[in-house]
UniProtKB/TrEMBL annotation:
InterPro entries: Glutathione-S-Trfase_C-like, Glutathione-S-Trfase_C_sf, Glutathione_S-Trfase_N, GST_C, GST_superfamily, Thioredoxin-like_sf. The lineage of its organism: Eukaryota, Fungi, Dikarya, Ascomycota, Pezizomycotina. This is Glutathione S-transferase. PANTHER family: GLUTATHIONE S-TRANSFERASE. It comes from Trichodelitschia bisporula. GO terms for biological process: glutathione metabolic process. It comes from the Eukaryota. It holds the Pfam family GST_C_3. Residues 131-276 form the GST C-terminal domain. Signal peptide: none annotated. GO terms for molecular function: glutathione transferase activity.
Length: 279
């Protein structure tokens, strides 16, 4: 189990704390998967407020810590600037002057963690830049998935923008998903032929955070648009027959997915609205 209570962590290891909304996998899941895949201990404030063993008061306190991070009057923790939006990552004693380092933006957090937890590809080479660009591309796809159910106003109810959501989802399914799927299929094919990636990995011959990020997007889309992805599986065999099932069985990820720490999809980025799926 990688997510631990602070008292169980060793003083010799960096103390990572993931800060994200309780009850949602959302954008916090990309960092969770990377930490779990690498076996890196971390504290998950929103997770522990969801599945932790603490009583109601304890969970309310954890939730309070989460939202204090993005409080409108916050000037930031230590010498870090204030966080605009969650998720955020706190690293104890890594900031200016020895205080905490608090960073946000999912791609930025993954880039910071990548080399430190062994998920940035081969050391001292260009892999880290390719890993970063592929993860960022997968995160772009995530943003487009979110906009299928909130295409006009992210603060308004889905029902108030239903017709616009149907139009956006049609374009997403028919134009955008094939473009992203085709691109990542080519990446896997190229890595298989050039670097013996076997169709299992995007960069080189071992797991990177680009793999965990793309896997999470595919998994979320299988939940949100099951009919659309089922219809397209045959066109992208490396993604659906090799990459997706292989990453799911990676050490650390397999155990995490079977645990209570894997928060179920609900009202986050990936939402299941049958009327938005292929009819």
């Amino acid at each position: 189990m990688s997510a631990e209570q602070p008292s169980k962590r060793t003083r010799t290891s960096p103390t990572y704390t993931l800060i994200y909304h309780p009850g949602l996998p959302g954008r916090g899941e990309f960092t969770r998967l990377a930490l779990e895949a690498s076996g890196t201990p971390y504290t998950d404030l929103g997770g522990e407020a969801t599945w932790g063993s603490g009583d109601k008061k304890t969970k309310e306190a954890l939730t309070g810590q989460v939202y204090a991070t993005v409080a409108p009057d916050s000037l930031g923790e230590g010498n870090s600037p204030p966080v605009y939006a969650l998720p955020a990552l706190r690293v104890e004693n890594a900031g200016t002057g020895g205080g905490p380092l608090v960073i946000s933006q999912t791609g930025n957090m993954l880039a910071y963690l990548g080399a430190k937890i062994g998920l940035a590809g081969e050391e001292d080479g260009p892999d880290k830049w390719h890993v970063s660009e592929l993860a960022l591309t997968a995160l772009d796809w995530t943003n487009e998935a979110h906009d299928t159910h909130h295409p006009v106003n992210m603060m308004a109810y889905y029902e108030d923008q239903l017709e616009e959501s149907k139009k956006r989802s049609k374009d997403f399914r028919e134009a955008r998903c094939p473009k992203f799927l085709g691109y990542f299929e080519r990446v896997l094919k190229g890595n298989k032929e050039k670097r013996d990636g076997e169709g299992k990995y995007l960069v080189g011959g071992k797991l990177t955070y680009a793999d965990t990020t793309l896997w999470q997007v595919i998994d979320g889309l299988l939940y949100a648009f099951p009919k659309e992805l089922e219809a397209r599986k045959k066109d992208y065999p490396l993604i659906f027959e090799t990459f997706y099932p292989t990453i799911k069985e990676e050490k650390g990820i397999k155990e995490y997915l079977a645990s209570e720490r894997r928060i179920k999809y609900s009202n986050g980025i990936f939402r299941k609205y049958p009327e938005l799926d292929r009819q």
